[in-house]
């Protein structure tokens, strides 16, 4: 899907003319939410994302807002209070669902917490674009939700990239540990599964723990693992915040440079840690691009275009060699990326 022969800025900044977008959104959204048929009321986009206390979602918000400004799209962004604010996030969406938006971009905290609110959106015939974290398929089916497209990282592939990197850094048979997010979380599970599949039986996974996506929890967990397993040679963390907690544990143990630490996200603080020799690498998954593609999917729907059922957002392994370029480009992708919506946007 993605080509390294095209540049991100060339492919991602194609805008649907404002007049066309507004008229088309009215058509695809099935009219205004109050049944008045006011086309202007259907030309607006609402985005509900996870908490802005995490830099990943700050970058996602930037992608949404900058794309809307560039492409002439009227967008309103609401965010949860934090990563655990499932009820608050749902309440925000419920409020927006009763207003004059024609397309909804949603980044749910869990697979089900936005389903009830989205049923109101679906009943009104409005477009639903699901980004980053997937809505549970069974719950969506039960609620008769039609998701126009899902946009997100191939999390298993991201974990695989981390595993391939660790294999290159440590000797066969080395002891490694895994620290995932919330136990049972689909995203964390996919990343961990991808990592395990990549390393196979070549490395000895001595422990797998959950640290709730939190840096301080990962710091404590990694400290305990290092103390109990003095021969551990590498850690994989399912997100950057936990990866940075592990880096601190390694530093506290006086083992910086001796234990490989790789995580997933590509947040700015993680990129800076990679450049400084803390994190060994991060698999950058470009939340800016996810937000950008979410808005552009609404544009495609507005113009009556065809959206694929799934759109894979780009990822790239960032080591010390790429860190400076990644920091300079942040929050936009530093690696070439062919926008999968380019052809539809150009129509």
From TrEMBL:
The keyword Signal applies. It holds the Pfam family Peripla_BP_4. It is found in: Cell envelope. GO terms for molecular function: carbohydrate binding. Residues 46-304 form the Periplasmic binding protein domain. Residues 1-26 form the signal peptide. It comes from the Bacteria. GO terms for cellular component: cell envelope. Keywords: Signal. Belongs to the bacterial solute-binding protein 2 family. This is Substrate-binding domain-containing protein. It comes from Herbiconiux oxytropis.
